[in-house]
Predict the structure of YitT family protein.
Amino acid sequence: MKNFIYLLFGCLLTAIGVTILGHSQIVTGGTAGLALSSSYIFELPFYMVFFLINIPFYIFSVLRMGWKFTFLTVLSISMLSTMTYFSYWLPEMTFTPLLGGIIGSVFIGFGLSTLFLNGSSLGGANILALYLQKKFDWDPGKVNFVFDFMVVLSGFYYLGLVNGMYSVMTIAIYSSIISYFKNQIKEKTHKTEQKQLILKTS
């Protein structure tokens, strides 16, 4: 129950961040960024695109990270999709790209870190970042930044150079927040693996 509350809290923080970025005409990285970009281009709801775009990554997650992690990831994606769906009912908010980018990225950074610390993610590059940390001890924040930067580059065409640069700023901010928690994330992952090993051998 405690773990679920943390996941709910992490999704809420991330949903607030994504909503603020959306109202600021800024994209983020990862599958959330792809979904946000696609929702602009095809004029589809973010929550729908975000859920569908993550489906291929579930297979990789099951093979490399296990069923429990995959289940919690699907749960987190579903919760975030639901929260962003209801955000469309909220009054229109207006943020400058600079202010919206800073505030939104801070919410996303702490939201993703909360999910990572509780054995979950939001799919896509999140899964790959955690896998590479687990396998090669790579910094998940830096891995996220590289992949998210490539996603943001795809949004420069319709966002323009200025808003595109603000988008790069946002991924740099929340990737730095994730990097700050990298040791705690690694330790949490190691403890979870030890518990699973004990259960298997008992």
Remarks:
- The mean pLDDT is 83.
- Residues 2-23 form the longest helix (22 residues).
- The radius of gyration is 16 Å.
- DSSP finds eleven helices and no strands in the chain.
